[in-house]
Design brief:
Structural class of chain B: mainly alpha
Distance between the termini of chain B: 121 Å
Radius of gyration of chain A: 18 Å
Radius of gyration of chain B: 40 Å
Largest sheet of chain B: none
Helix content of chain B: 55-70%
Number of strands of chain A: 0
Distance between the termini of chain A: 49 Å
Helix content of chain A: over 70%
Oligomer: heterodimer
Structural class of chain A: mainly alpha
Low-confidence stretches of chain A: none
Largest sheet of chain A: none
Low-confidence stretches of chain B: none
Mean pLDDT of chain A: 90
């Protein structure tokens, strides 16, 4: 099925087209969300939300970019929204414990192990992911799209609605920051 | 020497994602997605069943009731005043015929 046929089917609410879309993009969406969120269950939830959003707003997709770019953009937006809401909840977590809404201690995630990392690199990669977690949003997104999802500068620029040189600069700054953090807090 | 070791360590960590493979979506992803979509649709179709909706409806009823009670009271008072009937202490004085002037008259 070509992209045009897929889009035609989606716009006419065909279930087979939607199934084809999910099968074609589920790994890309899940891997990107996992790289950004560093949590398997949350990445699956966000990936599901991405496809629900695609299903609902396919009529708004004008075809000015590739379908994959549009889906990646939704994935990045949803993942960052999820991270922000998680941070907000963590910040106001003590209020919840005060008012008895949730008396559980604030959940501290353990080391994240990406399933694609080689066995001998697991420990180093877990530490690097911890440092990636501290990067500013745009640097983190560019770094994950480039390193984890293996996208080119051009693809990342299209997703972030930016230029290739801006993406290059983002990645340079991300690497510098990571080096600085690693130097300051060696494992 | 210490710096060199640290640099090597940092380079090793930075390179740990160089040969990373891609994670695949969990099994039965599509099936789970479809059930989630059905659940979301149900919520959208039957918003009446949601507690927030019920609370909103009850609040509206309460506000309308209080407002109509206040309005009814106001109308009652207005109509009494319009019929020329004295209100409050005057009506009490009238009822017991105590408006006959002073006892010294």
């Amino acid at each position: 099925m070509t992209e045009q046929e897929l889009l035609f089917g989606l716009r006419h609410g065909e279930e087979s087209a939607f199934k084809e879309l999910v099968i074609r993009f589920q790994d890309k969406v899940f891997n990107t969300a996992l790289g950004l969120l560093q949590h398997h269950t949350e990445a699956e939830d966000v990936a599901q939300e991405v496809f629900i959003q695609v299903f609902r707003s396919i009529q708004n997709f004008k075809g000015e970019s590739l379908l994959s770019t549009w889906i990646y953009r939704i994935t990045v937006t949803k993942s960052l929204d999820h991270l922000r809401s998680k941070k907000r909840k963590k910040r106001f977590g003590f209020l919840n414990t005060l008012f008895g809404d949730n008396n559980l201690p604030v959940y501290e995630p353990e080391d994240f192990n990406h399933p694609g990392v080689l066995q001998e690199n697991k420990e180093d990669a877990a530490f690097l992911f911890k440092m990636i977690d501290q990067l500013p949003e745009n640097q983190r997104t560019a770094f994950v799209l480039n390193k984890v999802e293996d996208l080119s500068y051009r693809e990342i620029a299209a997703i972030l609605d930016s230029t290739e040189s801006a993406v290059d600069s983002l990645l340079q700054r991300a690497k510098q920051n990571l080096r600085k953090k690693l130097n300051n807090s060696p494992p | 020497m210490k710096n060199k070791l640290l640099n090597e360590r940092v380079n090793k960590i930075m390179g740990s994602l160089d040969s990373i493979g891609k994670a695949t979506a969990p099994d039965f992803f599509y099936t789970r997605l479809v059930s989630k979509m059905e659940a979301v649709e149900e919520k959208r179709v039957f918003p009446v069943l949601r507690p927030a909706f019920i609370a909103a409806i009850l609040s509206v009823f309460l506000i309308v009731n209080v407002f109509s009670l206040l309005e009814m009271n106001k109308t009652k008072q207005n109509s009494t005043a319009r019929q020329g009937k004295p209100v409050g202490i005057e009506s009490f004085l009238n009822a017991y015929d105590m408006q006959g002037g002073s006892v010294y008259e």
